[in-house]
Amino acid sequence: MLKWLKVLISIVVLAGLALTATIYGVLSLSLPMLDGRGYSDVLDAPTELSRDKLGHAVITAKSRADVAYVMGYAHGQDRFFQMDLLRRNAAGELSELFGEAALSLDKSMRFHQFRQRSEQIVAAMDVRDRTLLENYAKGVNEGRAQSGMTSFEYLLLGAEVKPWQPADSMLAIFSMYLDLQADTFERDKALIHLEALHGQDMVDFIIQPSTFQAALDGSKIDRPSVAIPDLPSDIKIAEYRNIKPIPIHGSNNWAVTGNLTATGSAMVSDDMHLGLDVPSVWYRVQLNYNNKAGEKVQVTGVSLPGVPAMVVGSNDHVAWGFTNGYLDTADWVELAEEDEIREESQTILLPDGQSHQYNLLVSQFGPVKLFNGKKYALQWVAHQPYAVNLNLLRFESAKSVENVLDVASNIGIPVQNLVVVDSKGSAAWQPTGALPSRVFPNDLAVVSARAEIELWQVNERNRPRVMNPENGKLWTANSRVMSELDHRRYGDGGYALGARAQHIRDRLLETQVFNEADFNALQLDNEAKFLKPWHKLLTDTLLTAQAKGQDHTEALVHLENWQGCACSDSVGYTLVKHFRSSVIDIVFASIEQQLQQEGETLSYLTRYFEPALWQLIEKQPESWRKGYDSWQALLEEAQDQSQQRLAKKYGSNMVNWQWGKVNTLMVQHPFSKQMPVLSRFLDMPTVPGFGDTFMPAVQSQGFGASQRFIAQPGHLHKAVMTVAGGQSGHPLSPYYRSGFEAYATGQLTPLLPGDIVHTIELLPSNGEQR
Fold first, then answer.
1. What residues sit in the active site (predicted)?
2. CA quadruple 203, 205, 208, 212: dihedral sign
């Protein structure tokens, strides 16, 4: 018996090894070539694609058109599946890969008709830009096909690969619109429901301005004291639902002029906050080519796979970075009976030749939704022809801040806070990206008779800017940057609470001379300035409860030792953070319950809650404490609920509630999120939490700074570009996890590529320069 058991075990082990070897062999066949020679009929002259030990792609070509091809080749080799998801997400074509499970998402995307819009934009482009897209698409397809074996994602899905098309690059940009601006119209929809349920007074109360304001001109938005509306007494709360905040897809950036650096060059910092996935959203690249004037151009930074452009970077004359602008770029138009509506039908493909028909209502103002018992059309800047273009490429040849600002008003990307610096010492801020010329932004719906339909079709060219301020310092962090007067013109599209911007501003104002290390320290600053009042409130609540005979000794000890930061070993920080969340859940429970019945949520409005919360806590209105004898009892219940949730998830021992464990950074591959067994093979290593929401070091479990960039043009040997992941999407590539450890531990990774270790020559197909 023992002999047969040993034989059986041996067979199982050998079968497992054989299966592992087979999987490894199949995956190895799809690894891209890193050295050698290739040919293409779109190239005009010999080119090179080189890589350093991080996989940083270095592209050398004679022209920008040839650069586009090689850039596509590199993206196609390393990131094709990621790019495929971007285009399919925006176009509403994920069901063809994932089946009916993606049908609901595809329907929500088809509402925007981005495939059709992308094809129209490409058809209307000038020849030069269309050629760039065509060259890039050819490079993507030839780079992907070079390995000769379909990548593992398509093998697992049993799906065919569709070639990249020029319009797909527009879809990749539209996918960023969905990430960065969908909250804007969802915010307005929530406010429309809120007004219908509780009136304008409740809207004014919820979105009242806070004390957290950090505009560059120091202006404040003040309103007369907002009265606390009464809540209806007949609402019974079924359960307390966690009103989970929607992450602020945004970023930090700041800059100082040259008189505040030792070199005399201005310096910029930029860290863009996005969902963190495998592979990273960004791709490190350096472009070397001659521009139309025959001048040599070298620009280094990060690109978005799917688009032949440098997103953030420096050419050694200028350096630039972005944060999401959150200006008001969307309105819901309440349609009248006489407004014409037509129906359009679209086919959503499913696997195995199946399909689903999606019917869409369209008006002259935009696509139509039925909610709140009415028909509304969405006017959104992303639906306009000027929403997407390739004008960002013009930054690559700029030699001064003025050069960049000259083209910044006609860049076809989601509206961003551009901060740009140059080697001469200048620094400037200006909104860039698509921005409608309509002059009356709206938080609630606008009736169709007053909709500014013609002005929506024109990109706003006259924009506010700040250049070389007297104090030499600029900052943006997704809250209001512009003056109070300009704010009336451009509106609020879901601004972040200004606590993070204030934190950055105050740190900058404390210092008068800066270097790269100073900027990196600010990027990693996790002091809990915002939560200090909540720390005091929780401490006072527990002391009062303890005086009545309750035992909160352990929690009070952790609160006393909370360190005042989102530090990995702080239990006190976890207690304060979760206490605030529970207070929100209880205080706003009745409103959330009503909105849920309408298919809506307060989640899109949580960023506004702080002033209303403290007004309620200080005034203690009876109608808002729903079933509790006192506000002290409500606050005690909030801390009890928060501790129960923590105990349920992390165990009853408070030591296990350290912030680093509760907020562990988990950067995952899309497949492992659905199949956890793949996590060990596909995910980045887990990292203890080191930041949070209302501080420069933004980080949650799957969200945070997607890169960290610091540069002084003219001194790029000291510049930094740390990316939250490796270059390649292939799990067997040496570049799959390269750079992640430096990101996770706060190390400084150089912007410029290191010594070259691999090179592919890509030549015209006739072997000669044409």
1. 251
2. negative
